[in-house]
Design brief:
heterodimer; A: about 160 residues; alpha+beta; Ubiquitin-like (UB roll); DNA polymerase, domain 1; 5-stranded mixed beta sheet; 5 helices; 5 strands; about 35% helix; globular; B: about 350 residues; Enolase-like, domain 1; 5-stranded antiparallel beta sheet; 4-stranded antiparallel beta sheet; 13 helices
Amino acid sequence: MEVRFTLNGREVSCSLVGSELLLDVLRGPLGHRGTKEGCGKGECGACTVQVDGHPFNACLLPAAEVEGRAVTTIEGLAPAPGELSPEQQAFVEAGGIQCGFCTPGMIMASKALLDADPDPADADIRHALVGNLCRCTGYAQIIESVRRAAALRGEGS
Amino acid sequence: MSVVRFPVTVEEAAASPGEYRAGGTDVMDRRAQGITPIEDLVDLTRVPALRAMDWLPAPPIDTSESPEEPPTEEELTSEAEAPTAPAFDPVASGGFTIGAMVTMAQMGRSEDLRTWYPGLAGVAGAGATPQIRAVGTLAGNLLQRPRCWYFRHPEFKCFKKGGHLCYSRSDDHSLHSIFDLGPSRAVHPSTLAMVLLAYDADVEVRGGEHRSMEAFLGDGADPLRENTLEDGALVTAIVLPPPRPAERWGYKRAIARRRAEWPLVEAHVRLELEGASIGRVAVAAGAVAPVPMRLRNVEASLRGKKATQANLEAAANLAATGASPLPGNAYKVAMLKGCVLEALERAVGGGS
């Protein structure tokens, strides 16, 4: 079976044997290893991608299900090689990263929040990130990073 | 390798061999961990008929007792202004139907639900995580299997997997049931099932049968299932009764993490005040039994009483009547009374 979808704005296709997960297809044949596998059961959010603008756990999603849909991964955020998106830049500036394993998922969940709500309150940020676990930072810098991202996006608009 | 089938109609889905997959937040994990034998998947995400949300027409009015006079010739020929169609009134509707595959996020965003069934929209839109709400569906939520750590461990063959033991009874049962309704002490995992029980909702099964939530959930005595749905049957929708504008609601979830965690105990209340007194009232509790429970004794003790703190406390104190906790989960008895009281207070206070 062949699955065709839009990955970071480009049409891609991939042959499937059966019920392979989107996460495995992204990291394997499509070579997009920015999306991480954490718990593998939808609890940690390390594999968060956007499907049609909504945050999804790629570890729970059969790849066949994204046929005809638009998938955005962390690799799709930067506007050009060598540049960073406002969300990525904010996490660097505000120190929202330590080991970095949760970061792609954190940034994708943050982007989904900011796409829906450009100026979220801290409570909204915390609520939007409950599905993303970080074992390093204690979250304070991550909340600050999302606040910073909202400001950077505001400056750029 | 196993395959995923993508039916596009309910009939195709019913004819497809394999395990139904809705949002996949439970079935994918059970399959990956080898907890229950699942090979092929029947993915329901491309069945539009399962995604509808809409008001139902009012039932026809029975006019057999007093038939209207037929219009006179004069009335038929008069040039009086034709009556305009009355504005749609949800209260006079036949209720609201939510397709089985509507996601929790969609329920949380639905203006109809937020306006007319805020107690359901509020809970659906705040549960779990954004990633889970984006894919987790209404029927999938009702039909997810329990989170008991023995059931979820591939090496423990408990009652729920055809074995002959509930390991929690003699081992760690801190998160298990305090009402001993059957061989298994695992609690039902669905918050929405508890809320819909309080809403007197019906479950629509393929073929058109409607089953009350109470009948759908059953008595909790069969450890092999958490509902009365027959093997291979397909839930197509949930039907809510017409809304009640004067209704207030309250929900309390006792939880070990601020959000995105299974409840230790939870309670949901719908009630209407008639002056200072309590009129209609529904109270349901979850995470205390193999199925969510309607607390009829609590409801009965509130009906017609003034909504005073003393009366709310007296009613909440009845919540655990009949409970038989295990040594490691007796804390849930007090927690259940506390959750019911707080849900009642929130409802009387205006709803949240």
